[in-house]
């Protein structure tokens, strides 16, 4: 295999794939990126056996061929090469080495046989539909902060996506929860997504996808089965196994009888929570909210740090109420609200609270209170 390629093009393509590769691997071949050169293109593939990313980039192919090289070392070398340089890459299967040349620099890397690399399994999947990149970004951003990191409840370690109906309209709905908070986002059902099964997309897949789609403005082709999901856009294909588990009945968590309505300026509230929580202990991060008439008092107490109090003006319909929340969870939700005001629907100090963007009904958040 022998080729020349622009450093910036190679760096961009390597950046797309190398972050999938785990830093510590018990299987040596999984530390490598697969390079296949033919027909004027260099194809790069990286996998952790659950998630695979393939990226193609234009190159001058002198001699077609394939090899695998250490992903992170290869990326670091290309990253440190001078801007605008031409990179010459050649691999000799007989010596199990790959040589990189750029200007006066020469690097030699140990390679592993292409045959050892796992098959990518990029087979076509039965359900196929398209989605605008802005909608997919919205879907991810409005829900992923609520994904659980608790490995024992593995079925919560991703975003649950399914087709359903809301107010008589067909929607594609995404839900994530960690047991303390829940995020739900809806968008109009894309054409072709009518029979989409309910699937749980893993956290790592969600995070890698979000990084990749930042660089495109083209529609994303989504295809899936009950066990795999694939995203295609530009010259990149990401495919992933889905979480094999049953997502809980999230509808039961969303309260329907919350009659106390509170509307406030979201940015002012977020800044106040951030300031007051400076005092709260690292473990609980508790902030107490006392609501009475048109004022809200935020307070936090800590035996080590002292106390903090801040008063806000609000619009409130209901009787006086004292309720406590984890400040980090409040701030996570406040960051998702793009409008000026947020609406809180509450029942009492021990029941889940609903939070909405007053100007946008596509997202809904549920937050469990805590004792303060």
From TrEMBL:
Q: Name the domain of life.
A: Bacteria
Localization per Swiss-Prot or TrEMBL? Cytoplasm
Say yes or no: keyword Protease present. Answer: no
DNA polymerase III beta sliding clamp C-terminal domain location = 252-371
Among Gene3D superfamilies, the record links this protein to:
3.70.10.10, DNA Polymerase III, subunit A, domain 2 (3.10.150.10)
**Residue ranges of the DNA polymerase III beta sliding clamp N-terminal domain?**
1-119
Q: Does the keyword DNA-binding apply?
A: yes
UniProt cross-references to InterPro entries, sorted A to Z = DNA_clamp_sf, DNA_polIII_beta, DNA_polIII_beta_C, DNA_polIII_beta_cen, DNA_polIII_beta_N
Q: Where is the DNA polymerase III beta sliding clamp central domain?
A: 131-249
Q: Which UniProt keywords apply?
A: Cytoplasm, DNA replication, DNA-binding, DNA-directed DNA polymerase, Nucleotidyltransferase, Transferase
Question: What one GO molecular function would you report for this record?
Answer: DNA-directed DNA polymerase activity
**TM spans (from-to):** none
User: What is the role of this chain?
Assistant: Confers DNA tethering and processivity to DNA polymerases and other proteins. Acts as a clamp, forming a ring around DNA (a reaction catalyzed by the clamp-loading complex) which diffuses in an ATP-independent manner freely and bidirectionally along dsDNA. Initially characterized for its ability to contact the catalytic subunit of DNA polymerase III (Pol III), a complex, multichain enzyme responsible for most of the replicative synthesis in bacteria; Pol III exhibits 3'-5' exonuclease proofreading activity.
Q: What does the subunit comment say?
A: Forms a ring-shaped head-to-tail homodimer around DNA.
**Similarity comment text for this entry:** Belongs to the beta sliding clamp family.
User: What name appears for this protein in its UniProt entry?
Assistant: Beta sliding clamp
Q: Which gene encodes it?
A: dnaN
């Amino acid at each position: 295999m022998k080729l020349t390629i622009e450093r910036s093009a190679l760096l961009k393509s390597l950046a797309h794939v190398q972050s999938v590769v785990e830093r510590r691997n018990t299987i040596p071949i999984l530390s490598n990126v697969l390079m296949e050169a033919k027909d004027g293109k260099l194809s790069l593939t990286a996998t952790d056996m659950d998630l695979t990313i393939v990226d193609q980039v234009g190159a001058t192919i002198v001699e077609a061929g394939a090899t695998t090289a250490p992903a992170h070392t290869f990326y670091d070398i290309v990253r440190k090469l001078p801007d605008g340089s031409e990179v010459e890459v050649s691999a000799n299967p007989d010596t199990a080495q790959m040589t990189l040349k750029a200007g006066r620099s020469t690097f030699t890397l140990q390679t592993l046989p292409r045959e050892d690399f796992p098959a990518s399994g990029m087979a076509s999947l039965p359900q196929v539909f398209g989605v605008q990149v802005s909608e997919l970004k919205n879907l991810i951003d409005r829900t992923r902060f609520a994904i659980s990191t608790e490995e024992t409840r593995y079925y919560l370690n991703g975003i649950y996506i399914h087709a359903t109906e809301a107010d008589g309209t067909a929607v594609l709905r995404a839900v994530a929860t960690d047991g303390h908070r829940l995020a739900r986002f809806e968008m109009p059902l894309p054409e072709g997504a009518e029979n989409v099964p309910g699937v749980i997309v893993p956290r790592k897949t969600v995070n890698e996808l979000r990084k990749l789609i930042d660089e495109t403005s083209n529609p994303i082709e989504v295809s899936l089965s009950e066990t795999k999901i694939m995203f295609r856009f530009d010259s990149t294909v990401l495919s992933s196994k889905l979480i094999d588990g049953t997502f809980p009945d999230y509808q039961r968590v969303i309260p329907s009888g919350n009659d106390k309505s509170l509307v406030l300026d979201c940015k002012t509230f977020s800044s106040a929570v951030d300031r007051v929580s400076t005092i709260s202990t690292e473990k609980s991060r508790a902030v107490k909210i006392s609501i009475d008439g048109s004022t809200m008092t935020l307070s936090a107490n800590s035996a080590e740090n002292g106390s903090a109090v801040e008063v806000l003006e609000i619009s409130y319909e209901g009787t006086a109420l004292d309720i406590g929340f984890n400040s980090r969870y409040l701030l996570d939700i406040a960051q998702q609200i793009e409008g000026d005001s947020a609406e809180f629907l509450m029942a009492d100090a021990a029941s889940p609270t609903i939070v909405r963007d007053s100007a946008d009904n596509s997202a809904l958040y549920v937050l469990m209170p805590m004792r303060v």
